[in-house]
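User: Could you write out the 3D structure of this protein bound to guanosine-5'-monophosphate? I've included everything you need below.
Assistant: Certainly. Input first, then the structure.
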Amino acid sequence: MNKTGFLLVVSGPSGAGKGTICNALLKKYPDEYALSISATSREPRGNEQDGVEYFFKTIEEFEEMIAADLLLEHARYVDNYYGTPRKWVEEKLEEGINVILEIDYQGGFQVSSKIPNVLKIFIMPPDLEELKNRLVLRGTETEEQIIMRLKKAEEEIKIAEQYDYTIINVDVEKSVEILHNIVSYEKNKLMGEI
Ligand code: 5GP
């Protein structure tokens, strides 16, 4: 029997609600999913803590991790590095747990070629104006950073077409159920039950 979990690549524009959806999914089905914690060279935002939201690294430390092949994938986003520590993810998948990677599309395409059973899910905000409001309301970025993130968001929306599924996040609870149903469906399909 195939005990391997799915690697869920969850991407979407910054502020689209993917963090909220993933956290709610983990809370609802704690035995079935685990969230990978990425490493990044960006500065902590607000109350973010090392080892909770991210492993915060200097650029030099991050480049050493790349050189030592400790990352499953990595990408530059705006001005910083982001990457997925390899070992933890591989161990969880072997235990049959679905691992969520909340990463951008550059990383998503890298893992697809390295790991079997990858499901790529794109989370879309209902519209871009709404996205702008959410970023402004969050109040953690400067105006210049908001403009850069919105530009990046427009690019990302074009990428959505290359994902396995796109969820339009109108309601978090519904998005969580859609995501869980997608995983159940794909798991059954893999095991030959559909
Ligand atoms: P933020 O700075 O808002 O936390 O994240 C910025 C972007 O980096 C988001 O689109 C997020 O999905 C992406 N990201 C976070 N961790 C990783 C990672 O490990 N690898 C890649 N490729 N992207 C990541």
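Residues 7-190 form a domain with the Rossmann fold fold (CATH 3.40.50.300).
User: Perfect, thank you.
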